[in-house]
Design a protein that fits this description.
The protein is an alpha/beta fold. It folds into two domains: about 190 residues, Rossmann fold, CATH 3.40.50; about 160 residues, Rossmann fold. It has 15 helices and 13 strands. The strands form two sheets. It has a seven-stranded parallel sheet, with helices on both faces. Strands 10-9-8-11-12-13 form a six-stranded parallel sheet, with helices on both faces. Helix 1 crosses helix 15, helix 4 packs parallel to helix 5 and helix 7 packs across helix 12. The protein binds uridine-5'-diphosphate (UDP). Uridine-5'-diphosphate (UDP) binds next to helix 1, helix 12 and helix 13. Uridine-5'-diphosphate binds next to helix 1, helix 12 and helix 13.
């Protein structure tokens, strides 16, 4: 059996890991232990994802959150090193671009444990984003780079990374397919909020880039307030954004603000909305999976193919491209392909 130590800590990682963990279990060649760093810890941002997406219970919970980037990442590294030394995995499996990703990558690389990075190769080319630093460093110490798109493969090539690079498709598409059927039966969110299918838009805002600069936050809020005059706008509010609004006194107006929702409710909200407004990487793609036009509240995106295919546009871009289909994300078998690659890598 190949031993995998999976590091997760933040909401988008739970969604991605759910798809891959399921595929690892189905493959049968792996023994997976999950470490939850604790970066996202409140039940609505963490437990609900483990329950709804049937993610195996973490073998290790580190309860590390808060503090500056160095503080948080440093504490995670100390704790993860202990776990890695105890577990002695064949692979460290990391996801995306958070501090948990970076901590896992650095710890494993220094212990000579090969790193497999799911969602490798994404770039915004904006190094002021903490996520961009996490991605670049993680990719450069990874042995297996599991890319969701051809653009991600090309980004790695231009940084000199060509070995161990695989275009596998997007595991978030796998997660959406899993959740669609389940959400139809299990989510009562539309009734709860008194919403009719086709009668509302959905927004999310959570990035440090959006919330840390009051001028930027005010611009985003003004933009959303304006949209809410046209159609009901539902905003599951991320704790970081809630805090930033309270700190700055910037006011949302006419928006249906709700607490963050679980993945099945979010899937339901996206499946039945009209339009999506977001600064989230994952939500930009999910808008496409549900074929809903998205506007990204940023000046750049890592998911350039969504813009080229017209389903997404950057907020300062006047017009969207004509709608087209995106082949890169695959057929919902990205996680299965990752399991196959990890299994083959272990036997060579
Ligand atoms: N999401 C959710 N509930 C919410 C908001 C988002 O389930 O209230 C999901 C969303 O559908 C996507 C993931 O969380 O699958 C995205 O996470 P986030 O936007 O926090 O991070 P990013 O994708 O930008 O890394």
């Amino acid at each position: 059996m190949t031993a995998i130590l999976t590091v997760v800590g933040a909401r988008p990682q739970f969604v991605k890991a759910a798809a891959v963990s399921r595929a690892l279990a189905a493959d049968g060649r792996f023994r997976e232990a999950i470490v939850h760093t604790g970066q996202h810890f409140d039940p609505g941002m963490s437990d609900v994802f483990f329950d709804e997406l049937e993610i195996p219970k973490p073998a290790h919970a580190l309860h590390i959150h808060g503090g500056g980037h160095g503080d948080m990442t440093g504490r995670m590294m100390i704790a993860l090193e202990e776990v890695a030394l105890a577990e002695k995995p064949d692979w460290m499996l990391i996801y995306g671009d958070t501090n948990s990703t970076l901590a896992g990558a650095l710890v494993a690389a220094k212990l000579h444990i090969p790193v497999a990075h799911v969602e490798a190769g994404l770039r915004s080319f904006n190094r002021r984003m903490p996520e961009e630093i996490n991605r670049i460093v993680s990719d450069h110490v990874s042995a297996l780079l599991l890319c969701p798109t051809a653009t991600a493969v090309a980004n790695l090539r231009s940084e000199g990374i060509v070995n161990g690079v695989h275009a596998v498709g997007d595991v978030m598409f796998d997660a959406t397919l899993f959740a669609i059927a389940k959400s139809r039966a299990a989510s009562g969110i539309l009734a709860e909020l008194g919403l009719a299918p086709g009668g509302y838009d959905v927004a999310t805002v959570h990035r440090a880039e959006s919330t840390d600069d009051p001028a930027r936050l005010a611009e985003i809020v003004a933009w959303l307030n304006e949209r809410a005059k046209q159609r009901t706008l539902v905003l599951p509010l991320h704790p970081r954004t809630r805090q930033a609004l309270a700190r700055t006194g910037i006011a949302l107006s006419g928006i249906r603000v709700i607490d963050p929702v679980g993945y099945l409710d979010m899937t339901r909200l996206l499946a039945d909305c009209v339009e999506v407004y977001t600064d989230s990487g994952g939500v930009q793609k999910e808008a496409y999976f549900h074929r809903k036009p998205c506007t990204t509240l940023r000046d750049e995106t890592e998911w350039v193919e969504t813009v080229e295919a017209g389903w997404n546009r950057l907020w300062r871009q006047e017009r969207r491209q004509p709608f087209a289909e995106i082949a890169d994300y695959g057929k919902g078998d990205a996680a299965q392909r990752i399991a196959a690659i990890l299994g083959d890598a272990a036997t060579t």
